[in-house]
Each structure stands twice: as structure tokens, then as C-alpha cells.
Amino acid sequence: xxxxxxxxxxxxxxxxxxxxxxxxxxxxxxxxxxxxxxxxxxxxxxxxxxxxxxxxxxxxxxxxxxxxxxxxxxxxxxxxxxxxxxxxxxxxxxxxxxxxxxxxxxxxxxxxxxxxxxxxxxxxxxxxxxxxxxxxxxxxxxxxxxxxxxxxxxxxxxxxxxxxxxxxxxxxxxxxxxxxxxxxxxxxxxxxxxxxxxxxxxxxxxxxxxxxxxxxxxxxxxxxxxxxxxxxxxxxxxxxxxxxxxxxxxxxxxxxxxxxxxxxxxxxxxxxxxxxxxxxxxxxxxxxxxxxxxxxxxxxxxxxxxxxxxxxxxxxxxxxxxxxxxxxxxxxxxxxxxxxxxxxxxxxxxxxxxxxx
Length: 357
Ligand code: PMP
Description:
Blueprint: E1 26-27, H1 39-47, H2 62-72, E2 79-82, H3 84-96, E3 103-104, H4 113-119, E4 124-125, E5 147-150, H5 162-170, E6 177-180, E7 201-206, E8 219-223, H6 225-236, H7 245-256, H8 258-281, E9 284-286, E10 293-298, H9 303-312, E11 315-316, E12 318-319, E13 329-332, H10 336-356
Helix pairs in contact: 1-7, 2-7, 3-6, 8-10
Bound molecules: 4'-deoxy-4'-aminopyridoxal-5'-phosphate.
4'-deoxy-4'-aminopyridoxal-5'-phosphate binds at residues 84-86, 110, 150, 154, 180, 182, 206, 208, 214, 219.
């Protein structure tokens, strides 16, 4: 080992879902939205004058923050914006999880949480979801250095109601509780309302799923002005110019087009329900999804085999080789046409499996 190597920070990084470089695939593996962003987004990008790029962008991100504040009925100083919700969550871990006591998050959840905890040397404990993949709220009533969980949870797709969230926040007034609402727009109830009542609650959302803008990288957090000020201080101690000019302008346009937003969400939810029915008819079981993906297992066939078969048909879904969920697949909801291709391939798989058994 070279002398300087001992000073290197060693981390086991998060592994993002695969982004295959081929065109003719049905991509249902990373929970992207199959529909384009609102029309105003492409207009803003076409009209953008590259001459503006010679200056730094607005470090306060005022225009996007105030658009979001107006949309959610909160004050501008209760909104934080970052480069995707991963950036917002990373900032929130760094800002709020600064105790010797362990932070708490479920054993089955977004796999980035333990990576940030390790990166920042934050101790953590992972209460087990029950046998139906439900969070047990009493598990979060013990002493802790903070709490984070997604609602709906990922990859289970299960959503808790606001009463459940409020109980956790109410019982943890000495910690910051972060609710990661990456998927909330597809049928969940947002906890943003509760941020008016509890100043220790931070709600994080993203433009990557319901607003079809994963490629633009915009995420935000809503919480009391004290929480947001603390995050801003950490942000300015790290990188002041986080949001580029095109992200700010196109983000504003996306929020303004509420009609398109609602229409797109509705299409995904309808496709989700139809896909769930078809999958059940093929012998799949699944959780009650309130997200833009389904978390499914087959009564007879192994998830890994199905995953590999689908890949040979150029259909990509997500398989997690992890304890308790290694017989499940996470399937993103695409267009009706994409889901028909998936169902057809699965019908073929089941027929073949029957004829060879
Ligand atoms: N939270 C959860 C639960 C997610 O699944 C994801 C998507 N990988 C994110 C946050 C981050 O999304 P983004 O950075 O694109 O906003």
C-alpha cells in the first residue's frame, strides 16, 4: 500500500440502475416516466440564449423556489432546491444527521441511504419491515439521531397514510424526520401539509418521476424555515452554484403546466392498474402500489429467471439480489404499448415454462 492510500476515504458506492445504450429496448428498470416533459420545458430550452452561460447562475435559485412555494402554498424560505433529490437528500444527511445516536430507516428501502450514512460516518439502524413489507411505526419510537424513509417506499411501492407519518413525527420531536416522496404523486398523500405543524419534518420530492425530467436533475425539499436555513448554510459551504440556468428555467415551466402534470400522472396510474390485472392473471402476486412501478413475485417461477428471460427479449426490469426480496421484480410503468410487450413476453415465458416442466 502506498503511504497516501491510507488517507483515502473508502466507500462502497451506490449502483444506479442500468442505462443500456441500445435503442430497441423496453426500459422498465429505473422508474423513469415514459412521457415527455411539459411543452413549456422544450420551449424554454429552445429559447435559451447560450450567451447567458458566460455568467454564473443565480445561486439562490429564487425563480424556481418561488414557483414551487406558490404551487405548494408555502413561503420561499421553506423551499430548498438541488440537483435531483439525490443531491437534496445527500445535503439533508450532511445537515441533519449529525448525532452519535443511530439514524433509523427500514431494512428494505432506497439503497442510497446506507451509502450516504457510510460516506458521512453516520451510525444507522434498520428496523425490519414486517412480513407484508409494512413499516412498523413503533420501531421508530426509540432514541435516534434522525429518521428517513420513502413514502411510498421503494422498491416495495407501499404507501402509508398521513396519520402514520404524523405519529412518527410527533413521537420524534427531538430528531429531524425526512420523508422522501420521490413517488408520492402516483397515488400517495404528501406530508407537505404537516410541515406547517412540525418544524422537525422535511419532505423531499423530485422532478425525475412525475414531471418526466430525470435527465435535468431537479429535486427539492420543503420544511420549516429553520430546517431550510440549515440546509442552505451547508449547501453554501459545499457548492453555491448547484442549479444550472437551463434547469432553473425548464423547472419553472414544468411546475406552471399543472394540467399536463395531472394528465400524465393519471395515465401512469391507469396503466399501472391495467398492468397489475394482467400480471395477476399470469400468476403474479404484488404489493398494493401507489408508485410508478409494481413490485411483483410469481407463485411458481423465480424472479431472477424471469428477469433474465426478459433481458433476452430486450425488456429491462429491476432485480435486486438482496435478502427477503430476491424473488421479486420491480417493474416501472411505461406506456400502454410497452406494458403490452412486457405482458406478451411474460405470457410466452409462462407457456414455455409449463411445456418444459
Ligand atoms: N428517492 C428514491 C426513493 C428514489 O427511488 C430515487 C430514484 N433513484 C431518488 C430518491 C432520487 O431521484 P432523483 O435524484 O432523480 O431525484
